[in-house]
Write a structure and sequence with these properties.
- This protein is an alpha/beta fold and 255 residues long.
- The protein folds into two domains: 2-34, no CATH class; 41-252, Rossmann fold (3-Layer(aba) Sandwich).
- 34% of the residues lie in helices and 27% in strands.
- It has nine helices and ten strands.
- The strands form two sheets. A seven-stranded mixed sheet has the order 6-5-7-8-4-9-10, with helices on both faces. A three-stranded antiparallel sheet has the order 1-2-3, with no helix packed on it.
- Helix 8 runs antiparallel to helix 9 (246-252).
- It is globular, with a radius of gyration of 19 Å.
Length: 255
Amino acid sequence: MDHGYIAMKKNEVFCRLSSVGDFLGNESLVVRLIFPSTFFEENYFFEEQIYTLQKACIKNGLIVFSGPMGSGKTTTMYNLARKLANEKHVMSIEDPIEIYEPNFLQLQVNNKAQMSYSELLKVALRHHPDVFLIGEIRDNMTAKVAINAALSGHLILTTVHARNVYGVYQRLKNLGISDEELQQTMQVISYQRLIPTIDGRAKVLFDQIEGKDLDKDIIQGNIQSRMTKDWREKLEYCYLNNWINKESFETFIEG
């Protein structure tokens, strides 16, 4: 994996390059173009969903994002953190850094130097940041350090691999986080998909559970399907209002 910049219509675009050779010696190259973030409220189907996240950022605690690669999780986290950077000290820990942001103190995982997510988190705490942006919670140690940081008064924005909001909760449980710790720290669990619209663009739809609803919706086992009722209702609203076509509706109804 490598990084670089290219010029495109007089603008610089950040690139992530990944190459691999097959058994015949042929090279396969993937270039991911990461454009300067221009995601504002109009890039989301429902403004109240991004406002839910912005409101949660006012408080300390944990905001966890999930969704497949390319769904815009990192972009969402960065946009939320940028709104805080004028008044608060924001640090990001990623593997690798996906978006250059001069207003953040950005740290990159380097396993060869024994600088893992968990080790960098321990180091970062000594710099007294207000906000942590953690690229991904992958293991028990990172999960524990993130929870402890949230308990000690920090705002944590992070991602977890899961297929829906309920899966985020279960993944954190599997990493050794207790129900009590989640109830004390969780502000929002947010799953997102980037859905094509009829006019040829793409917008983000979220499936969200606020921390205050964790016990009612998840811990007590009141789960009826993969997605929440709110997701299905909002996706149907998009379809009935001709924002998305029938194919997209059927593709994304289960997340």
